[in-house]
Amino acid sequence: MARTPNYNYERQERDRQKAAKKAEKLAAKAAAKEDRTKSGAATDTESETEE
Q1: pLDDT band at residue 8 under the 50/70/90 scheme
Q2: The pTM is what?
Q3: Where is the composition biased (Basic and acidic residues) (predicted)?
Q4: H helix count then E strand count, the chain
Q5: Closest to 41 (Cα-Cα) out of 28, 25, 49
């Protein structure tokens, strides 16, 4: 016998997975942005010390 579909539960699971993926992407973007700012700040301080 086929199971009866539980549309609300399936939709909640899809939304939960979508939210988790979005949060993971945002965290990766924030980490990349932080790395860029740190490396950019490091090059600025190095050039100032050379002068």
Answers
A1: very high
A2: 0.60
A3: 10-38
A4: 1, 0
A5: 49
